[in-house]
Amino acid sequence: MRALIISDVHSNLEALQAVLEDARRKGGFDEVWCLGDLVGYGPDPGPCIDLLRSLPLIAVAGNHDLAAVGRLGLEEFNPVAAEANRWTARRLRPEHAAFLASLPLRIERDDFILVHGSPRDPVWEYVGWWPDPAGNFQAYGTHYCLVGHSHTPFLCLATPTGCRFEAFQEKVSVSLAEERLILNPGSVGQPRDGDPRSSYAVLESQARRIELHRVDYNLALTQTKIREAGLPAWLAERLAQGQ
Ligand code: ZN
User: Fold this and answer.
1) pTM of the full predicted structure?
2) CATH no., domain 2-241
3) Which helix (H) or strand (E) holds 20?
4) Residue 178 pLDDT
5) What integer pLDDT is reported at residue 221 of this predicted model?
6) Separation of 193 CA from ligand 1 center, angstroms?
7) DSSP 8-class letter at 35
8) Ligand 1 mean position to 172 CA, how many Å?
9) From ligand 1's centre to the CA of 160, what distance in Å?
10) Which of 24, 96, 188, 231 is deepest in the core (most CB within 10 A)?
């Protein structure tokens, strides 16, 4: 079984289409595992939800998804994120809102648990930026954990004394071995690791390996749509910077 692992699409249709195309070209996938924040920031919430729902999808909710359907307040959002979230909420059709509201915070699949932030706090924790990241290994029962939220690919390996972070590098195959592991595939729609290309991972469950890929998309078109929608200009600028 091959699973396409994506996170933080953030209403960026061009990026999502480019990822799906690239993944299909590189061997395809049987399922799509989505780690939340389908919407927020970008100009195409409805089309992104429709496209995702046309796929064999499992998905958890992210903080932006919850806020867009009134399940989370905007107090913790920065002003630009809050403005974009209010814009998104106004544009969601009832069926899109109902779909987002139906997403769980955690899904277990095979040896994996899928969450948005962390197993300890699926809504808000940034693994690696909050204290005691290793404490997350006590917060879930499966061997491996997939997270999004920070928009930065990484590997966090359990060690006898805590944990160790490593870069999750493009085209380097990561073997799923004995060590417990938290993986972040980066962001499809708003990468923040200085590389503006969309980021995603593919799990090959029989071969027990997982690989990260990056792909260019029509960023100029997304920027134009953001500006024409009246969303904050910074949301267009940051895409080009990968910030
Ligand atoms: Zn996000």
Assistant:
1) 0.97
2) 3.60.21.10
3) helix 13-25
4) 85
5) 98
6) 13
7) -
8) 24
9) 31
10) 188
